[in-house]
Specification:
- The chain has one domain.
- Helix content is 56%, strand content 0%.
- The protein is elongated.
- InterPro entries: SAM-dependent_MTases_sf (IPR029063).
């Protein structure tokens, strides 16, 4: 019998590819037209910063 962790991991991986295709390299329309606008407004210039993108979906914001 699979442990709870193995069950969660299996479900996560099962849906990851579909989610990745939906979000794509530039995010979905909700992110592009809504949340990303505010994210970039409040985070500011990140050119000289080190940012950890961990556990944030497919990482479409990762440079």
């Amino acid at each position: 019998m699979a442990s709870e962790l193995e069950t969660v991991e299996h479900q996560w991986n099962k849906h990851a590819e579909v989610w990745n295709q939906y979000i794509g390299d530039d995010g979905d329309s909700n992110r592009q037209e809504s949340s990303d606008i505010y994210l970039w407004k409040y985070i500011g210039n990140v050119d000289d910063k080190v940012i950890l993108d961990a556990g944030c979906g497919n990482g479409y914001l990762t440079i």
